Amino acid sequence: MVRERSGRVLAANLRALREKAGLSLSELARRSDIAKGTLSQLESGSGNPTLETVFSLSNALEVPVSSLLAEHGDPDAVLVRSADVEEFSGDAVDLRMLRRLDLSDATFELYDQRIRPGDKQYSDGHPGREHHIVTRGVLRLGPVDGPYELGPGDYVCFSADRPHSYEALGEETVTSVLLLEYPAGPIRAGRACSAAVRTRRA
């Protein structure tokens, strides 16, 4: 099953990254604000992490999210079937990671993203930049002190190292493509976006 396989992948990656960083379970629990028992379950492959848990681990270990979720290997051609991809859910957002791309100066993660109406998804911030293209619905997202409003076909890029949020406007689920961009090497904050288009703020 997809969940069982993704659980095994996360367990192996989490354990390897923690050991590489020289962290005990207790220290990782402190840095990520995740209970030690929960971490132990995740490393055994029996946990069921939320979107918030995965991003907390990514920040604590200072690695891209895909370092936790992706299987190793980089074949010349990649086909991803929808039924084979694990979905991670937060308060309002469902994410499915489709691909990780490692280039000379950056690492990119490609996600299929859905934002459910009725709730807001908040992020305290994480290193890198976020690129969004809305394919259906109206989405308000970006820095909490100055969000953007996007409709179908609209694009926005913003530095993700400060608090930001996502909210579907209206009654339909918003579908969009999310591209997370990290600088090569240890992840760090503070990269600005080069504006190719102008977007409207809410």
Automatic annotation (TrEMBL):
Protein name as annotated: Transcriptional regulator with XRE-family HTH domain
Signal peptide (from-to): none
Keywords: DNA-binding
Domain HTH cro/C1-type, residue spans: 14-68
Cited SUPFAM superfamilies: lambda repressor-like DNA-binding domains, RmlC-like cupins
Xref: InterPro entries: Cro/C1-type_HTH (IPR001387), Cupin_2 (IPR013096), Lambda_DNA-bd_dom_sf (IPR010982), RmlC-like_jellyroll (IPR014710), RmlC_Cupin_sf (IPR011051), TransReg_Diox_bact_type (IPR050807)
UniProt cross-references to CDD domains, sorted A to Z: cupin_XRE_C, HTH_XRE
GO molecular function, one term: DNA-binding transcription factor activity
Classification via PROSITE patterns: HTH_CROC1 (PS50943)
Organism from which the protein derives: Nocardiopsis composta
GO cellular component, one term: cytosol
